[in-house]
Structures are given as structure tokens and as C-alpha cells.
Amino acid sequence: MQSDPIKGLLHFSLPPLTWTSVIDILIVAALIYQLLLVVRGTRAAHILAGIAMVAGLYGISILANLEALRSLLSYLIPYTPIVVIILFQSEIRRTLAKMGRHRFFSGGFQRFEALDEILLALKLLSQDKTGALIVLERDIGLRTFIESGVLLEAIISRDLICSIFMPGTALHDGAVMIQKDRISAAACFLPLTVNPALAGDLGTRHRAAIGITEETDCMSLIVSEETGWISYAAFGEIHQNLTVEQIEESINRHFGIGKYRAQRPSFDFPMDADRMHDSDTHERVGRS
């Protein structure tokens, strides 16, 4: 005679609570919380809800003795891990990248002289309203994205950066990738963000700048060809309409560069001086 599963649940008793059990529960709760943070506000949340519904149906089929439904779902459950890996590959990759963001060794962009050239180039591009996208590598390598463009391996200079993004040239459409003190490649293709919480008026250049920072710990610098605004993206968030000085401070903070002891060059050029006062207020668009 088959035992009643409902009676079995009623007579079920919990094991004794020990310190090991408490630690085990806290670790599992932390993992579930991190999973919810990863999928929150994305299309993956709806997929996860669908998987949870299938699991709930399987549990109901066991309790209610629905043999046909249980048999059908039992054939699908063994393939669930493979389905999860395929559907959530971008989220899994992003989570593993976040776990590796702790900086045990110094790396990435760090030379002050190179930073001066980048900031001056941003100022010139902003004045001319020339669209630009510059990616600064930190600890996670960008080789995959560098190989999608044209290899340069050139010393960083404002003239070279401005020449690359000059409209009509062969390399202006795409991103410039910077590794430490060198321009590694230009015209690189970047993944576009699919975060639904972002403003709908963001263009492809800004979405690409955000997308690369969702998968790595790099920092993207953007110049809008419509408004001339200078913006930066990091860790999936974009900060718009900043001054060159604010960009410099953000780079220092992102890469852990201390305050400069040497005399810093002036980025306040005589032209377009009014925008320097208007850009104190900036818009921050991030994950809700």
C-alpha cells in the first residue's frame, strides 16, 4: 500500500539547529540574494519565474498524485541545469566577473601623463561635438573586444585620439581600447546593454559604453556628437554631462590613483566656457 505523502509531511520533523546549520543557511541565503540582484530588472527575471513555476508544478504533481504530469516533468528536470546555463550565460559571466573585481595586484590604466592626453582629447572632442568612445582597461582583460577592431599598439596622444574619431575616417566608428599607457586598438565592437531601466533616449554609443562595463571592470568615456556632453560608464551605470575635472576625479577613484602632487595642466580652454558652468549638474542613469 502506498503511503500518503501529505501525512508524511505532517509527521516531518526538522533536524536540530547547530552552528554549522546556521552558517549553511546564511550562505545559501546570501547566494539566493545575489542571484536575485543579478536578474532583477532584466529579462532573465521572467525566465527564472517560469522555471520556478515548472518546479512548483512538479511539486504539486507529486503531492496530488498526478502521474501523467509528474512523468512529463520528470523527463524535463534532468536537462534543467543545461537550460539554465544557456539562458543565463550572460548573467553568470557578469557575476563571475564581479567576484573577480577585488584588486590583489595593481593593473590597468595608471600613468598620469597618459591621463593628461586623454582628458585634453576629451575636451577637444567635446568642443567640436565629435562622437567618441574610449575604454580604459582595469583588471579584467579586454582581449576579446580588442581583437574585434584594428590593432594599433600606439602611444597615447591627444592628436592620435582626435584623429581616430574624426568623422569620415576608417576608424572613427567604434571604440578605442586603452591598456595601461598604450592605445591597443580602435574601431572595436562592444556589447550593447539590454538593461530596461536605462533611459530610452540613449544612443548606440552610450549603450555600448554601458554594456562593456556590465561584463568587465573597465571604465568607458563617451563624448556625444549631438550635445558634446562628456560622460563615463562604470559597473553598468552611466554618469552624463560632466566636466573634464569631474571625469579626472572619477578616473582617479575608479583606478585607485591618488591625488596628484605635481602641477596639473589646465583643461579650461577659452572656447565653450559657458558649458563648463552649466555642466555642474549631471544626470546619473543606473540600475533601479
- Computed Rg: 25 Å
Q: Identify the CATH homologous superfamily of the largest domain.
A: DNA integrity scanning protein, DisA, N-terminal domain
How would a textbook summarize the main sheet?
8 strands, mixed
- H/I helix tally: 12
What is the count of distinct domains? 2
Distance between the termini: 55 Å
SS elements, strand count: 8
Helix content range of the residues, please?
40-55%
Shape: elongated
Query: Which strand-content bin applies to the residues?
Result: 5-15%
Mean pLDDT: 78
Task: Quickly give the structural class.
Answer: alpha+beta
Helix and strand succession? HHHHHHHEHEHEEHEEEHHE
Instruction: Please name the CATH topology of the largest domain.
Output: YojJ-like (1
Assigned CATH architecture of the largest domain: 3-Layer(aba) Sandwich
Note poorly predicted spans: 259-267, 269-288
- Read across the widest sheet, the strand sequence of neighbours is 2-4-3-1-5-6-7-8
CATH class of the largest domain: Alpha Beta
